[in-house]
Amino acid sequence: MDAKLRHPEKAHKPDNPVQLRKPEWIRVKAPVSAEYAETRAIVREHNLVTVCEEAACPNIGECWKKKHATMMLLGAICTRACAFCNVATGMPDKLDPHEPDNVARAVEKMGLAHIVLTSVDRDDLPDGGADHFARTILAIRARTPGTTVEVLTPDFLRKDGALEVVVAARPDVFNHNLETVPRLYPTIRPGARYFHSLRLLQRVKELDPSIFTKSGLMVGLGEGRTEIMQVMDDLRSADVDFLTLGQYLQPTPKHAAVDRFVTPDEFADYATLAKAKGFLLVASTPLTRSSYHADRDFAALRAARAAKLGAVPPAAE
């Protein structure tokens, strides 16, 4: 889809030409495997949307080869217009009442042990789509009880009671991304509020301490090292378990420009700092994305919590 049609709110803005050449460590191969084609066929068969495609994730070839697709609920059109995101903006579609069951069928067909559910922002809905998240979690549990479920939710800004609905469905992991440092919110994430997002994560733990919480940041948008460290401290104050850090990539010339490409050594340094601050798990590489290797990371999360509590991890029982 043409960028102007996909992002009409950005059409009048001047271009931010892609000026920085991608370094070798950020380049990926085009998806060509038979397994990729099979995953795509399952997604199409069940009339589903994936963030892998809509957000132009660079890891789609690797993940779909393993039949790991991240389902994007509530349609393909977002009510927000973040400066970093490739998901289309506009008037959203009506909710598909069959989507929760279709997701559950696809999860079963793919044989997934762990599934990540995310969504567009739906500021037009009274509950922001919370009930739809809950119904999808319950549908998956009914069809494949052994599948663990991770949600990556919107911020449910001004949606009283919405968070409680999702938490009551008891996802195994609750993820909500802060995305960037507070100073950059007005330009990068203008529809959101940093401290509301932080409080959302804290509230999950207050409602159900057994749920793992997770958040992610993009780097390379002009943030400073000290600012990243402050966000780490804020997340630990909210008792967040898992932090992801990855390189921001500019989807189109109408989106925010890449300020710089952070080196793999700097990502490793951020990981060391975050672990020292007490996160149970940290994923920090140029290609890290919220749901990248989520199945493997969930097993590591459980093992880390068990080690911290001096218990035997579930896989070792």
Give an account of the 3D structure.
With 317 residues, the chain is of the alpha/beta class. It is 38% helix and 12% strand. It is built from twelve helices and nine strands. It has helices spanning 3-6, 34-45, 51-54, 60-65, 99-110, 130-143, 162-168, 185-188, 194-207, 225-237, 264-276, 294-309, and strands at 71-73, 77-78, 88-89, 114-119, 148-152, 173-175, 212-219, 242-247, 281-284. The strands form two sheets. Strands 1-4-5-6-7-8-9 form a seven-stranded parallel beta sheet, with helices on both faces. The chain has a two-stranded parallel ribbon with strand order 2-3. β5, α7 (162-168) and β6 form a beta-alpha-beta unit. α5 (99-110) packs parallel to α6 and α6 (130-143) packs parallel to α7 (162-168). The protein is globular.
Shape: globular
The quaternary state of the protein chains shown equals single chain
What's the alpha carbon Rg, rounded to whole Å?
19 Å
Alpha carbon gap, first and last residue = 50 Å
Strand content: 5-15%
Q: Detail the poorly predicted runs.
A: none
Mean model confidence by pLDDT:
90
User: How many strands in all?
Assistant: 9
Question: Structural class, from helix and strand content?
Answer: alpha/beta
Query: What strand line-up does the widest sheet have?
Result: 1-4-5-6-7-8-9
Order of helices and strands: HHHHEEEHEHEHEHHEHEHEH
- Share of residues in helices: 25-40%
The number of helical runs is 12
Main sheet record: 7 strands, parallel
